[in-house]
Amino acid sequence: MYRSVDQVWRTQPRTMSPAVMESTARRIGEHARAHGLGALGIVLHGGEPLLAGKEFIRTAVSAIRREVDETVQLTYAIQTNGVRLDEEYLELFAELDVRVGISMDGDRTAHDRHRRRADGRGSHAQVAAAVDRIAEGPYRRLFSGLLCTIDLDNDPVRTYRALLRHRPPMVDFLLPHGNWSTPPPGRDPASTDTPYADWLIEVFEQWYGAPVQETRVRILEQIVALLLGGRAVVEGLGLEPLGYVVIETDGSISQDDTLRTTYPGAAATALHVLKDPFDRALNQSALVARRSGLAALATGCQSCRLRRVCGGGHYAHRYRADGTGFVNPSVYCPDLTALIDHVRRRVAQDVDRLRAAPAPTGTPTL
User: Fold this and answer.
1) Model confidence, pTM
2) Three-state DSSP state, 142
3) What stretches of the chain adopt beta strand conformation (E)?
4) 188-212 per-position pLDDT tens digit
5) Contact predicate 178/315, CB 8 Å
6) What is the dihedral sign for C-alpha 55, 60, 63, 69?
7) Which residues are bridge partners to 216 per DSSP?
8) For strand 216-217 and strand 170-174, is the pairing parallel, antiparallel, or unpaired?
């Protein structure tokens, strides 16, 4: 989003002020009490959140715990590029019980193609050291997994195997953010080609075909769960309603910040934690639409055979600057269709095989 059309981040402070941070904590506690929530998830995100410093993170986590009733189960997570993830940060996260996700795009060649330092040097060596520090030491319980943005120039199997070498509990492969008006790399909106499906299908075969589970792959795991009648827990699949808001460093309440890749102001709500409760955001028409499930989809998506699994795709990927806004299929529609159908066929084969297998000797029958 930092290279996208909405550049409002340039006018925002680098970190929250103490007043904004304390008010955010109060709003979280207020919302939990108003709705009788038993659990809340807090994600410390960026940019690069470790730039805020250890004391700020300690103060923020402590403020939220102080404002939220003890009966509410709080989970904290942080997503970092790993460059600053040293032993002192890991000690802090162990003390505060903060789970850590690290962004890593594969081996050195794959990762350093885009994830470079200000002086142009690649960051892979530092990131790999940070991943090993949390994966192999006493802090492994904090390790939530690796986040990898798909790059079609990177070999999918080589990328997956490079990530597996760090023994992540989960890998999350992300489709690059793009839409009909600003297509993602390699995705021609007028074409029925499926380059992202082809990439992920190769990963699926490695993951699903392994004799033992080597890791969890969230996008693939969620597709399997939805095909078997379960529910999705990530945005971009299924029809579950949006369950979060974003608090910017200046205290403004916004929608998912991925909407900044569509048009300037797309994520804004004109609300602020110093004066507005979260319910005012949830009642705004844009967020109501995003929580409307099937009713919020384009007409063709509402009748699609894959609608319960695909869910229309990620909301930001539906945008088209022709007056239709977000009431469109995902720009990744051919890819999502091909990927879901491939997974469905493989899972169906195994289900049929299990049904046809003879019952073990001594198994009681009804």
Assistant:
1) 0.92
2) helix
3) 39-44, 73-80, 98-103, 143-149, 170-174, 216-217, 246-247, 252-254, 268-272
4) 999 999 999 999 999 999 999 999 9
5) no
6) negative
7) 170
8) parallel
